[in-house]
Amino acid sequence: MFCRARACRGRLILIVAVSLCAAAEVSAQDVLTLGEALDLAATQQPSVQAPQAMARAARETAVAERQLPDPTLSLGLANVPVEGAQALDLRSEPMTQVMVEFSQPLPRASTRRLRSEQALLEADAADVLSLQVLSEVRRDAAVAWFEAMGREQAHALAVRNHAEALQLVQAVEIDHRGGRATQAQLLDARLAAAMAEDRVAALRLQAHHARTVLSRWIGEAAFRPLPQSWPVLPAPAPLANVLAHTAQHPRLEVLSVQIEAADKAVALARDSYRPNWSVDVYYANRPAYADMVGARVNIDLPLFAGNRQDRRLAASVARREEANARHADALNEQSAQVHRAWAEYEDSDARLSRFDESILPTARQRVAAVQAAYGAGTGSLVEVYASRRTVLDMQIEQTALTVARARALILIQYFSTAGVRHEYP
What we know:
Outer membrane efflux proteins (OEP); 4-stranded antiparallel beta sheet
């Protein structure tokens, strides 16, 4: 009977182990990695598709701008009598005509070419803007993923601390009943447990908020399980290299294309000083007399350019100056952002090294010393818990620094890749 029971327990343990392994495998497959989050963000954002539609529209417009305007067909009657016995008689008056007129505007070929080139520049700007939006989406999604990861890990640490606080309360209650702990120590333990529970609730809410921010980029996938360990991000390129790539960033490329478009606008304004042409051809049918044909050429006369062409040229030049100024300002701003991100990376990286090499090891040594004192009868469980809570605070701070370093690395990568997709684990 004993052997049969032991065999049943063995089979039960085996079944439970297999079930746990299967569950772990499913859980591992469902984990939302950083790379998958960025892929989801890139494919689910309408903001990435909008500039692509703008580019297609601009290219279609460029073809249309090179064409001649549509001709005009006019139908009419001329010199029809309206009085006397011959009123409305088309055959009684030799000047009465049924007219058909064909008119074709002939704008300058240079104007049509410049307008087409301007539309193509708009298409180029939209293409670069699409790259810019895509890189911004991937940047923001990566930062949101790390924020969610950090909040989740901080919450897990707080849960563990709360469990230790509850164990502390039980231990102090036993000591208090045995006369080895005071009423104040018991109240301290209960207060520590209540504060630990409150901290769990606060960090749980922060973790949920971080998930909702991530869902802005990837939808419901943001609430899937996250990995247990941090992904390893590549070290940044030297600062000088990052700054050198700044001028090729999509944001600045968009502004550069806008400067070219402003140059085309200036060229169009200068071209407007030259006259446009149009040709009219007509055919007149006279019911009782011989038919007639005619033709004429119309020429614009830009004689009063002071308040028209001159003003438009001045406005175009001013817009070009504005485009140059915005490009220069964006370059300065982006360079400042690179320096700031680099400083944040160096600071958080140095602080993380300090936590790993001295702060956390020293805190853990203090926990061991306090525990040894308690074992020797010269310390209290409350002091042991307080020292362990200090380690928890430092671990949460270390998690926040890990997120800060990742955020800085993501920003540096965003500024240095010039729109090129960067793969993350």
